[in-house]
Write a structure and sequence with these properties.
Shape: globular
Structural class: alpha/beta
Strand content: 15-25%
Helix content: 25-40%
Number of helices: 10
Order of helices and strands: EEEHEEEHEEHEHEHEHEHEHEHEHE
Radius of gyration: 20 Å
Mean pLDDT: 97
């Protein structure tokens, strides 16, 4: 039967989201109704909310793509085992059938559903999503408070996928430009895989936290000439005797200055991965790829079949969530968006409807 619920709607870019009633349709055979326990706030949500990034679904739309919740109903008996289970809702829900999915590139599925972009998302009491890709929490993580696991849906899993995309091996050097947000998880995953991690950021606080979470070196960026930052960062790798063919460069800030800095770190046969997003254009000399015989990758989201590996790293304590998240009532969503726009958030906000 249809689900009567409530949600925060983006009705027009640049305007506050409005809380109002929502009726979800009876789940189709491939769908499930999930009661939201928590939803993380991502910088992408700010782009949608301020109108700088268009959503695929027409407005009004419920934003939010980092969801942990409880399955309350399914549309077909084949998914009945999910009812009552606590799950992470992947930010990328692929079709599972197309050429991209069959090729192991489900994160690039052209038919994918992204909650809060392609359809209503998680800043709500409930949401309706494809059931097949839902990720039940493993017993090791299914404790009393699972709210932090909402960030697995994007920040953690995107970090994992970025490291996989880079081909990183134990003994490599990982340069992480932008150590906050997803960069904090890229750094932790790379460290867990045996890399030496060099974090670069404009914020002393983020660099200090990166070191606490396992980064080997922290390179301050603010107020310094780019050539000096480059020399210090590359100097750490050279001091270890690690040739540039084993350098993995992750641009996680999305900022123009961050992209320029990360690109400058390219060396002979190095690998560059663009993780961060911004709408603004950046001028880069692409012939550096030719001159260095280097490789550049984009990375988008994460295939759902990779989530168990993320859960394992968290359960083993190799990826920490608690130092990077903070909680607030979901009713403060507009306040949190303003704080994000004003660069006042120091942690990833996880919004809890039970606190309203």
């Amino acid at each position: 039967m249809p689900t009567a619920t409530q949600a925060w709607f983006l009705e027009s870019g640049g305007q506050p989201l409005r809380f109002r009633d929502l009726t979800l349709a009876d789940p189709a055979v491939h769908q499930a109704v999930v009661r939201v326990l928590a939803c993380g706030l991502c910088h992408t949500d700010l782009g949608y909310a301020d109108g700088s990034v268009p959503t695929k679904h027409a407005l009004p739309l419920v934003l939010g793509h980092e969801v942990v919740g409880v399955v309350e109903a399914v549309g077909d008996e084949s998914h009945a085992a999910l009812v009552g289970k606590r799950v992470v809702v992947p930010a990328v829900l692929p079709c599972g059938k197309c050429a991209y999915c069959r090729a192991g590139r489900a994160n690039a599925c052209p038919r994918q559903v992204m909650p809060g972009n392609d359809d209503h998302g998680g800043f709500a009491r409930h949401l309706l999503v494809p059931a097949a890709a839902l990720q039940p929490l493993p017993a090791a993580l299914d404790g009393d408070d699972v709210r932090a696991l909402s960030v697995v849906a994007d920040a953690v899993s995107t970090g994992w996928q970025a490291v996989l995309r880079s081909g990183l091996q134990a003994g490599d050097v990982a340069f992480v430009v932008g150590a906050g947000g997803v960069g904090a998880f890229v750094a932790q995953v790379a460290k867990a895989m045996g890399a030496t991690v060099v974090a670069l950021d404009t914020s002393p606080e983020r660099l200090e936290l990166a070191l606490q979470l396992g980064a080997d070196r922290a390179v301050p960026v603010a107020g310094r000439p780019g050539k000096d930052v480059k020399a210090e960062a590359q100097g750490h790798a050279k001091a270890l005797g690690v040739d540039s063919l084993r350098w993995r460069i992750f641009e996680c800030s999305g900022a123009a200055a961050g992209q320029t800095l990360a690109w400058s770190l390219l060396g002979r046969c190095a690998t560059f991965v663009q993780v961060g997003y911004a709408a603004a254009a950046v001028e880069l000399r692409l012939s550096n790829l030719m001159a260095f015989d280097a490789t550049a990758h984009g990375t988008w989201g994460c295939p759902p079949d990779q989530y168990p590996a993320c859960f394992e790293l968290i359960a083993a304590g190799k990826v920490q969530l608690a130092p990077l998240v903070a909680y607030a009532p979901m009713a403060t969503l507009n306040d949190q968006l303003r704080a994000m726009a004003d660069h006042k958030l120091t942690r990833r906000m996880v919004l809890d409807p039970a606190l309203d």
